[in-house]
Amino acid sequence: MPRVFIKEGQDPAYRVLFGAFDFEDNFWGAILLDEKGEIRHRWKLSTEDQPANVAPDVLKNLYGVSILPDGSVIFTMQERGGAIVKVDACSRPLWALEGQYHHTISLTDQNSFWTFGGDQKAFDHLLHEVDVESGEILKTIDMKDVRLTNADTHIFDLQVEKGVPDAVHGNDIEALTVERAAAFPGFEAGDLLLSFRTTNLVFVLDPQSLEVKWWRVGPWDRQHDPDWNADGRISVFSNNERGVGKHSKIVAIDPKTYATEILLDGADYNFRSTFNGMHQITDHGSLLISSGLQGRLFEVDRNGEVIFDFINSYSWEHDRALRVAEARYLESDFFSLGGLPKCEN
User: Fold this and answer.
1) 57 three-class SS
2) What is the DSSP-derived secondary structure letter of residue 341?
């Protein structure tokens, strides 16, 4: 059984947790917890009924998910799932975009989201912008065109040799919002922040001109989930798979000065993630971590104190946990007027 700790006295809010919860009638899903740790809602997430699906859900990886104020959820289960799917607050399908997609469902200001398409082991990834309401692809960027546009910026030559498997492994795309743009002089709202895991590369791309505006290799290792933050820095989930030590880190970098800071050292929290992984710096300054392989979601406040800890335990006796995908801290007024409906499922 999963176990949860929530520090008493927190303000009313929600945390939505995505993962393999092995419901009686569904393997992957989401649960909504209030500030007391009580379950207020749940979603069942599956792609088994998709025509292009190639595996049962228990053999997939839910990685790439977003929740909207009306309670709908958009998600992908990597290439084996056969589609990106949107369901309503009661887990009923709204649309499905058939094909191979992976790693990210990253919402924008324009009622759209960015995702990767095609084979995730391909050297030149495809970046797709998709309409939230219809599931229609609005724009596609081929990384081959990005390489040609930035011919004198040799960050994409690091593993261009033929035969190198999984040579770049793009795993995140995040558009700079209008709200955050003022904190990032030199960038514009809509610019894309991308992560290429294999080469430890994080870079910023203008989706119109295809100009690479900024890049950095090195302060992180096998990273995931770079985020634009309100303080004008970019925070990155560093798995530290090949680095010194046995624990992961959250690292912040100032794109103007390249100064870095370790926001959270996993050695202090038994936090270790060799791949996958997400994080969120909330408006309250807390740091919410998704350690997928550990089956753990935890949050620390500004002082580094753990205020939330969830372990998706499958067997305490055998020290086994089911995978988690992501957690999001949501303000109490996040959902549309009237809140979430009561569902039959």
Assistant:
1) helix
2) P
| CA–CA dist 16, 219 (Å, integer) | 30
**Unique residue bearing structure tokens 């393997």:** 27
Return all residues near 275 (Cβ < 8 A) that are at least 6 apart.
Answer: 197, 222, 224, 239, 241, 292, 293
pLDDT over 90 percentage in the chain:
79
Nearby residues of 2 by Cβ (< 8 Å), 6 or more positions away? 21, 310, 311, 312, 313
Q: How far is CA 261 from CA 2, 254, 287, in A?
A: 33, 9, 14
Q: Provide, rounded to the nearest whole percent, the portion of the chain with pLDDT above 70.
A: 96
Cα distances (Å, whole numbers) of residue 210 to 7, 106, 109, 153, 191: 46, 19, 20, 12, 10
Mean pLDDT, residues 149-156 taken together: 92
Spatial CA neighbour of 165 closest among 193, 197, 194, 140: 197
Two structure tokens written together for 106:
């990253």
Inter-CA distances, 259 with 47, 119, 176, 264, 345, Å: 42, 35, 20, 16, 50
Spatial separation of the C-alpha atoms in residues 297 and 320, rounded to whole Å: 15
- SS3 state of residue 298: strand
What is the structure's pLDDT at 223?
93
Can you tell me the distance from the alpha carbon of 125 to that of 116, in angstroms, rounded to the nearest whole number? 7
Average confidence score pLDDT of the chain: 92
* Backbone phi, psi, residue 16, to 5°: -100, 130
d(CA 136, CA 131): 5
* Location of structure tokens 């081929």: 142
